């Protein structure tokens, strides 16, 4: 038997008591806040279009990039030229293909075309990818052709900052800016439940102290070569 209920009776919980979900991707408001805080350029990855409201923003704002090897019909742009203290610098965002099922074009082919368009400018590349091998292979492919490449996506900072033989700065993964006591940002108990095969609620951002992870690459303005590569990891 199915009992008819009024619309009001279908609500089983008070929305104000619902946990805050942990949506993926970036919203226009969040992007604006990061740019207002001093970010020069934002780069994205496999969650670029998870929030559809970002699409118009990607078309309108020149300071945010989505992977260049996604289909050209998608909103936004994958690389840009930005004014800096050392003059114009090209910034590129690419998406890896190992264990990331988004069917991007081959990043090793796409970067050739992008570098032709950037025409000899110093270039910085954010390669958003899962596999360390793919990131390293890209770095050696581009060694001497770009100023620096770093990886993102794994949320765990690697300890391999270096300058490659022909002068390109490199770090396999910058790591995460987010809650320290978390599984890549999510409450650990939810991630554990997921891996145990249990029903899980929508992921929520873990509470507690936060960290900021990244890297600083020093570039020689005359040669475009990297002269220093440093990891950054700050905790509350
Ligand atoms: Fe990612």
Can you give a write-up of this model?
This protein is of the alpha/beta class and 236 residues long. It has helices spanning 28-36, 54-60, 107-118, 132-142, 188-195, and strands at 42-43, 64-65, 79-84, 87-95, 123-128, 148-152, 162-163, 169-171, 178-179, 210-219, 226-235. The strands form three sheets. It has a six-stranded mixed sheet with strand order 3-4-5-6-8-7, with helices on one face. A three-stranded antiparallel sheet has the order 9-10-11, with no helix packed on it. Strands 1-2 form a two-stranded parallel sheet. Strand 4 (87-95), helix 3 (107-118) and strand 5 form a beta-alpha-beta unit. The longest helix is centred in the middle third of the chain and has 12 residues, at 107-118. The radius of gyration is 20 Å and the shape is globular. The termini are far apart. Mean pLDDT is 91; it is low at 1-19. Fe (ii) ion (FE2) binds next to loops.
Task: Give average pLDDT, whole number.
Answer: 91
Q: Tell me about the biggest sheet? A: 6 strands, mixed
What binds here, in terms of ligands, is: fe (ii) ion
Question: What topology, given as strand order, has the largest sheet?
Answer: 3-4-5-6-8-7
Brief account:
With 236 residues, the chain is α/β, with parallel strands linked by helices.
Offer a few descriptive terms.
236 residues, alpha/beta, three-stranded antiparallel β-sheet, 5 helices, 11 strands, globular, binds fe (ii) ion
Secondary structure layout:
Layout: H1 28-36, E1 42-43, H2 54-60, E2 64-65, E3 79-84, E4 87-95, H3 107-118, E5 123-128, H4 132-142, E6 148-152, E7 162-163, E8 169-171, E9 178-179, H5 188-195, E10 210-219, E11 226-235
Parallel strand pairs: 1-2, 4-5, 5-6, 6-8
Antiparallel strand pairs: 3-4, 7-8, 9-10, 10-11
This protein binds fe (ii) ion.
């Amino acid at each position: 038997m199915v009992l008819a209920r009024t619309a009001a009776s279908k609500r089983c919980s008070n929305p104000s008591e619902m946990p805050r979900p942990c949506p993926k991707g970036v919203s226009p408001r969040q992007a604006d806040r990061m740019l207002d805080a001093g970010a020069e350029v934002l780069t994205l990855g496999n969650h670029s279009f998870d929030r559809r409201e970002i699409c118009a923003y990607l078309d309108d704002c020149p300071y945010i990039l989505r992977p260049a090897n996604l289909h050209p019909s998608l909103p936004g742009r994958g690389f840009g030229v930005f004014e800096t203290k050392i003059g114009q610098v090209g910034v590129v965002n690419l998406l890896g293909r190992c264990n990331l099922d988004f069917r991007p074009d081959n990043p090793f082919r796409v970067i050739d075309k992008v570098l032709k368009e950037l025409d000899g400018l110093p270039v910085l590349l954010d390669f958003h990818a899962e596999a360390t091998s793919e990131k390293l292979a890209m770095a050696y492919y581009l060694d001497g052709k770009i100023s620096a490449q770093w990886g993102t996506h794994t949320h765990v900072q690697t300890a391999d900052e270096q300058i490659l033989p022909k002068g390109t700065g490199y770090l396999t993964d910058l790591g995460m800016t987010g809650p320290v006591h978390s599984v890549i940002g999510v409450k650990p108990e939810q991630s554990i439940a997921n891996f145990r095969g249990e029903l899980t609620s929508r992921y929520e951002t873990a509470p507690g102290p936060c960290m900021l992870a990244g890297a600083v690459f020093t570039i020689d303005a005359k040669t475009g070569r990297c002269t220093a590569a440093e990891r950054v990891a700050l905790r509350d």
